Amino acid sequence: MTFIFLCLIAGGLIIEGVRKYILKIKDPTIEDIWLELNEEKWYQELMRNEKIKPYLLKSKENGLLRDPHYVRNIIDKEGHRDGFINYIKKMAE
Fold first, then answer.
1. Number of other residues whose CB lies within 10 A of the CB of residue 85
2. CA-based Rg of the chain, rounded to a whole angstrom?
3. How confident is the prediction along the chain (93 residues), in pLDDT tens digits per residue?
4. Residue 16, CA atoms < 13 Å, CB-side half-sphere
């Protein structure tokens, strides 16, 4: 059992090393993902709302929008997006 676990960890490290150093694939930075987020129409509509805008900016500073994986999910997946929009609207009430 331990051997299988160590093999899985070693395999993961090898794959990550190939991806990072040989293929030179880099994870996008949070700033790159924020640029994509700023282009989304639904996000632009939220930013136009003066009640919601401070909560979005605060979320970028130290909230949900600091996590690149979460931001990627709300851009790509409608369910995550709807949940985030509802959360922000409830915070602004």
1. 16
2. 18
3. 899 999 999 999 999 888 888 888 777 889 999 999 999 999 999 999 999 999 999 999 998 899 999 999 999 999 999 999 999 999 888
4. 7
Token pair, residue 93, equals 């009430």
| Continuous segment of H or E residues that includes residue 18 | none
Other CB atoms closer than 10 Å to residue 74's CB: what's the count? 22
CA-closest candidate to residue 72, choices 41, 25, 30: 30
pTM of the predicted model, to two decimals?
0.71
- Kindly list the distances between the CA atom of residue 87 and the CA atoms of 20, 23, 29, 67, 78, in Å, as whole numbers in the listed order: 35, 38, 24, 16, 14
Contact 39, 75 (CB under 8 A): no
Nearest to 65 by CA among 50, 91, 51, 48: 91
